[in-house]
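Because discrete structure vocabularies remain unfamiliar, we reproduce here a specimen of the format, pairing a chain with its fold in token form:
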Amino acid sequence: MSTDYQQAREALGVRLRELRLSCPDGRLTGTALARKLGWPNSKVSKLELGKQTATPEDLEQWAAACGRPASYDELRARLAGFESHIRSWRRQLTSGHKAVQDAVTVEHERTRVLTMWENCLIPGMVQIPEYARHVFTRHADLMQSPRDTEDAVRARIQRQEGLYQPGRMYRIMMWEGALRSLVCPPSVLAAQLHHLAGVIGLDTVELGIIPFDASLKIWPGNSFWVYDERLVVVEDWHAELWLDDADSVALYLRTWNTLRESAVYGADAHNVISAARRALNLR
């Protein structure tokens, strides 16, 4: 759980306590409030200390029990503000990229179906070391973060062992622009595209590519990853958003499925990769 998220949850707890202590009919003890709501005492304590995330129903009942039903809208707005878990790059990269990779690996290890959309880079799960090295270096330069490039590369490549483990599925889809972005020397990109083509056919991988000339039902937006049906990670320049509410997960899966209608697979995907490699004009 991110520091940003926990701080927001604790702030909501402080506000709940304020409402309990300022009831129009006199302050309520935690025990009295729990009895009024039919909750265990521990639930009141955990919500006020930020050790449990309130549901919208919890907030509505709390506001009513404290004699301030109009406060529900404010409480609900606070909750909505941290249903998106904001993990700022500044905080994540305090000690470099390896720590970020390790956090992602934890999610990968507990995931059976990973659904990915990439609009500008080859996805990390199918990157070669030299390509990953250039990606990490450029990002560290932009973020002015410590360089632990080799440790980060090793962590990313080790995670790719999941591609060869039965019982897992990697649904990888990308925009053709990801095949042509020169974030590394042309020779490295050529090797990366050769490796990418070799992934097609693995029984744990569905690799789709949306060609530039495909008819689109939705525009290619930010990159995102859906872990089973429990978590979405969306990447932006300032932060990653870790979303675990059901509505957000459903939205991103719907977005992915809409994009998929424009993707090509198998031999057709191989042809798009080969065309991108030929366009490098390597001698």
Q: What stands out?
A: The chain has a mean pLDDT of 93. Residues 3-21 form the longest helix (19 residues). The chain has two domains: 3-84, 93-278.
